[in-house]
Amino acid sequence: MSADFDVRYTAQLARLNLSEAEIAKFQAQLSQVLAYVEKLEKVDVSGVEPTAHANAVFNVFRDDIPRDWFTAEQALSNAPRSANQLFVVPKVIE
Amino acid sequence: MELTSLSMAGVQEKLRAKEVSPVEVVRALEARIALVDPQIHGYLSRDLDAALKLAESADVSLPLGGVPIAIKDVINVTGEPCTAASKILADYRSNYDATVIGKLRAAGAIPFGRTNLDEFAMGSSTENSAFGRTCNPWDLSRVPGGSSGGSAAVVAAHEAFAALGSDTGGSIRQPAALCGCVGLKPTYGRVSRFGLIAFASSLDQIGPFTKTVRDAGLLLNVISGRDPQDSTSLAEPVPDYTALLGRDLKGIRLGLPREYFIEGVDPQVDAAVRAAIKHYESLGAEIVEVSLPNTEHAVGVYYIIATAEASANLARFDGVRYGHRAADATGLLDHYGRTREEGFGAEVKRRIILGTYVLSSGYYDAYYLRAQKVRTLIRDDFTRAFEKCDAILGPTSPEAAFKAGDRSDDPLKMYLADIFTIAANLAGICGVSIPCGFATLEGRQLPIGLQILGKSFAEAQLLQIAHAYEQSTDWHKAQPPLA
User: Fold this and answer.
1) ipTM above 0.90?
2) Distance CA A30, CA A17 (A)
3) What's the pLDDT tens digit per position in B445-478?
4) How far apart, in whole angstroms, are the C-alpha atoms of residue B110 and residue B68?
5) CA end-to-end distance (rounded Å), chain A
6) Which chain A residues have a beta carbon less than 8 Å from that of B300?
7) Cβ atoms of residues B210 and B165 within 8 Å
8) Nearest by Cα to B212 from B245, B186, B253, B187
9) What span, in angstroms and rounded, lies between the C-alpha atoms of B192 and A16?
10) What pLDDT sits at residue A3?
């Protein structure tokens, strides 16, 4: 399985650019990690339910009541770029 | 005795007796930090003026009145940086308090100082910080453990009476062991994570670093409880976590998992832990053998689940709402790709890629789903073990503090440092590391940690067991040889 592992393609999925040096290094390091975790293939998990959370808590609901939270100024206070109380993003549509 | 050498309970006594004022306590800490932190680098930043202002009006009659607490730089405090030790958040400032910070304030405590960590809490040595490594107070050439290495080091070096950290796979217990202090990972759901920068949401838990077991209980009293802002926090009643301290250990059964006493554990660590077990016998506890047969799979399961969750959690760092943004993007993909390339360090990149891969189409079942199933087996191991015992003993870390740089380029070797701590996060149970001796390496004394794992929501009993050992030994009184 780990033989199919391709750092360059996976990094694209993660929207993460890498240098050629990083690609070579991570390919080697992560292939080693994947080879290690593949030990799990040998564990018999037939009939075992997966655990997603340590505590089985489902559907935690609360009433949808409006309350004070961030003002627009607060929400934008860490924005790399903002204008007119909005986040400014790169042009997406040509 | 120096004021800064006191335990948290010790300084509270002086505050309540009006022998010292909260302002004097903050100033004493500041003087200690100025003296030793240039060597340790446990703090990334601190706001002395803000702390002094809080100290001026602190009510010492409150549960933690007037006590400064250091905060891992991954927990939001209004008006302060919260960098996660990452370049991507270098200029970020919080404009809200995490729930634990609100609880500390309500109890009269003073958040003071932001402690260093591995970037986004990913690591076991605090070498992955974008702002420089933290040094172990016992030997500056060695690591303090991680990821909460700053919190552990500042408590051990008496630059803080107590600190908060977070534990996803051992990030409180392992650095506590390597620095010689008490580190408690509460049960999953015990403490709200609202305002904690998420790493792996099914595993993360906030907990205290302290000089004594009693102090850990006092802090847990304050930070525990259900929070409507964190749907994974549970409504279990919050008892007084100091209530059982001082009770004897008659009738207490302590389990030794045969899988925790294996080759690969440093002989000095093994000897110290075996001596601690003998000591527990002499205190009246019954020692029973238990088995956690899936222990060998814990690291593999963890590095699938934790990286999968991390790759999803860290998708929010997109250069739009906060954090670093790459300049002059030519389009959206270029914007994302370069923002994240420039902002994240090597270990974070590795984990995002690994997590993305194990979740990707065609591999999800083979890696992620399978890991979740083996996680069930690991939980079941503990359920069965706890039928035979009240708590489980073993080493926190297979070895004492290692040299900085030794394994920073060998991720797999670094991951195996967490072999004894990870399972508790996967199972959701509570655990504590307490000092239980010293290893001598290159003529230096290095602390060894004893890990005690308890049943879910059994922190009061866990601390009772830890306290009985601590109070009948002197390890916790030792101080690192700092100038």
Assistant:
1) yes
2) 17
3) 999 999 999 999 999 999 999 999 999 999 999 9
4) 4
5) 40
6) 36-40
7) no
8) B245
9) 31
10) 72
**What whole-number distance in Å separates Cα of residue B88 and Cα of residue B471?**
44
Please give the domain boundaries of chain B with CATH numbers for all domains: 3-234+241-254+387-477 (3.90.1300.10)
Instruction: Tokens for B384, please give them.
Output: 């069965």
Task: Please give the C-alpha separations between residue B290 and each of A45, B170, B457, in angstroms, as whole numbers.
Answer: 22, 21, 21
Q: Are strands B110-115 and B68-72 parallel, antiparallel or unpaired?
A: parallel
- Structure-token match 């000095």, residue found: B268
**Residue A32 to residues A5, A24, A25, B137, B356: CA-CA distances in angstroms?**
11, 13, 11, 33, 16
Q: Which residue of chain B comes nearest to A12, CA vs CA? A: B337
For the whole model, what pTM was predicted?
Answer: 0.97
CA angle, B256 then B124 then B134, to 5°? 125
Chain B residues 338-357 with a CB less than 8 Å from chain A: 338, 340-341, 344, 346, 349-350, 352-354, 356-357
CA torsion sign for B122, B178, B377, B466 is negative
Q: Which residue has the tokens 């903050």?
A: B26
